[in-house]
Amino acid sequence: MKSARIIYNPTAGRETFRRELPKVLEKFELAGYETSTHATKGEGDATEAARIAVERKHDIVIVAGGDGTINEVVQGIAEADYRPKLGVIPAGTTNDFARALSIPRDTQKAVDIILKNNVKALDIGKVNEHYFINIAGGGDLTELTYDVPIKLKSALGQLAYYIKGIEMLPSLKPVSTVIEYDDKVFEGDIMLFLVANTNSVGGFEKLAPDALIDDGYFDLLILKKTNLPEFLRIATAGLRGTHLEDEHIIYTQAKRIKVTPKEKMLLNVDGEYGGKLPGEIINLKQHIEFFVSDEFIEREARIKGYLETKERN
Fold first, then answer.
1. Does residue 257 contact residue 180 with C-beta atoms inside 8 Å?
2. DSSP character for 142?
3. Which residues contact 56 (CB under 8 A, 6 or more apart)?
């Protein structure tokens, strides 16, 4: 009999997954999986639970939580020789990675996607000793994702990030930074940089619109020094997806990116604190297999077709 291990964050989102758990277990058992669960107890616990799942050679691991919980599970799997397939049940606040895989918030629909058995090997990133699935970034504004209190996130959802972002705007300042990406170098004052593995960043799906998760490349976005009115204008354009041609934006693709700030800059990894920069960011192509939706497969095919046509022209 195949085995499945469910690692879930009991406090994620509005704690809805716990109420759905009996039905989830029933579905997996009926599908032929001997299924067990682990409720995380604090920071780093999901990583240890994932390591145990690897040691026990579970066929699949299902992560129910937000991007932070998925990130922790990946930390426990990424370096292993045997890496079980990963399924995602979005139960967090923003759920960027699940959104990128077109996995719905509805728990039972997410389970159905896993049981349909569409599996695809996807890229992950590594920066210093941290792995990430979705985003690595730096600059004052990237700190808001781990600066928002858990209770506020639970009560207000994604609105909590907007409130915190507005609060931070007056204090944003540029940092002199050297960014080496593949065979190119940028040096100058920046407001922030984002290294995107997916098209969904902070709940926005148009910041890196052409990002693919299996091509071995990151989408790199650098926002150069701006004043507050310019920053607000560019942020508004980012919501619409019209920001990429702005003179303050560098948008490109790279496999390897080295970031060296000339003063203190903190690293954001999948919405969590990842230490201090400098750091080297490396793409690990098609490193872990994930269960994905039909919609995701169709979207990736459309983008690849669009990029191939663009390159020919």
1. yes
2. G
3. 3, 5
- Specify the pTM: 0.86
Q: What angle do CA 81, 87, 93 make, to 5 degrees?
A: 120
Write the pLDDT tens digit of every residue in 216-246: 999 999 989 888 778 778 777 777 777 878 8
Active-site pick, 48, 272, 280, 289? 272
If DSSP codes are grouped into helix, strand and coil, which group holds residue 48? helix
Q: State CA 34 to chain mean position distance.
A: 29
Q: Is 272 a catalytic residue?
A: yes
**What is the C-alpha to C-alpha distance for residues 223 and 190, in angstroms, rounded to an integer?**
6
Strand pairing of 266-269 and 272-276? antiparallel
pLDDT tens profile 168-197: 555 678 899 999 999 899 999 998 899 999
Residue 229, H or E segment: helix 228-240
